[in-house]
Design brief:
about 30% strand; 9 helices
């Protein structure tokens, strides 16, 4: 598949601080790509280099087959982490304005802006100034400014931040709709559940360095399986079991065990060994691996516990 975005050996330093460290990855045409990491992991710095807001210290970046630059703007939609709208402009006027910045005609930008406002339930607020909109309404207008030019590449920096559950659902639907319409979507987040629901592929970033790149299935496979077992005897000696920790004695000699398996061992294999050895079971429950578990395994801290400082922050439109 064609690479829409490619970073090769990209490093960004701010004085003595390295915000992005030798980062390489590619995003393929038509996929939803999750850019995941804790606060200060380097996500925003990386996206700003893609948008040519800041320049890398070293390494190369290709966006839609070209170096980063203003000539890419008509093909890119960008939703910055730090929202910013002209508060005295009406909802429709500001969407039209952003469309014009992307090279659209005024008529096309205004027409598509009305379509987006109707889709977001804001059709009656087209002539309402931003300062009179609720926070949720203003966030929908901001999203519309990123979508108005029907971008080939849609970049969303922490798009779910500050949204209530209803608007989070609307945004997830818009991400999937943009992908169905042929856009390539990149979104950064430190909330793993959004990535699990949306991503074709993802990248885990910690302190500016890549820790993983691949599909969700590949991410889950990076973490050895765990089981919750209630048995009369310890499963510790079964083939494929690396540890079995007792969680307390139950009645009639039954005991609950937290069982960890060797990498690549399937729970079904362990269940077969229990049957062959006559180990009586009252529970045999595989632990459902989550992306949060994978992050902890690969990075060592929760995604919201990364305290490294990212690049100096400022809002920008692309």
């Amino acid at each position: 598949m064609t690479s829409v975005l490619q970073l090769v050996g990209v490093t960004k330093r701010f004085g003595d601080f390295t915000a992005v460290d030798d980062l390489s990855f590619d995003v393929r045409e038509g996929e939803v790509f999750g850019f995941l990491g804790g606060n200060g992991a380097g996500k925003t710095t990386s996206l700003r280099m893609v948008l040519d807001i800041i320049r890398p210290t070293s390494g190369t970046i290709s966006v839609l087959g070209r170096p980063p630059g203003r000539e890419n703007s008509r093909d890119i939609g960008f939703l910055p982490e730090e929202r910013g709208l002209y508060r005295q402009m009406t909802a429709l006027d500001i969407i039209t304005y952003f469309g014009r910045l992307k090279g659209m005609t005024a008529a096309d930008a205004r027409s598509h802006g009305r379509t987006l406002l109707d889709r977001f339930g804001l059709g009656d607020n087209a002539k309402t100034s931003v300062d009179k909109l609720s926070k949720g309404m203003a966030q929908k207008v901001q999203l519309a400014t990123a979508l108005v030019n029907r971008p080939r590449l849609l970049i969303l920096d922490e798009p779910f931040s500050g949204l209530d559950p209803v608007n989070q659902g609307l945004l997830e639907a818009e991400i999937l709709n943009a992908a169905r319409q042929g856009a390539t979507v990149i979104f950064s987040t430190h909330v793993m559940q959004h990535a699990e629901r949306l991503c074709d592929r993802l990248l885990l970033l910690a302190r500016g360095r890549k820790r993983f790149e691949g599909t969700l299935t590949e991410a889950y496979a990076a973490l050895p399986a765990r089981l919750s077992v209630i048995a009369r005897s310890s499963p510790a000696d079964l083939p494929g079991v690396t540890s079995a920790t007792a969680n307390g004695v139950m009645t009639d000699g039954w005991q609950q065990w937290d069982v960890r398996l060797a990498h690549g061992v399937e729970p079904g294999d362990v269940l077969q060994h229990c049957s062959e050895r006559g180990i009586a079971l009252r529970r045999f429950e595989p632990h459902r691996t989550t992306l949060h578990d994978v992050f902890l395994h690969l990075v060592g801290t929760a995604p919201d516990a990364d305290t490294a400082t990212d690049a100096p922050q400022r809002s920008a439109a692309a």
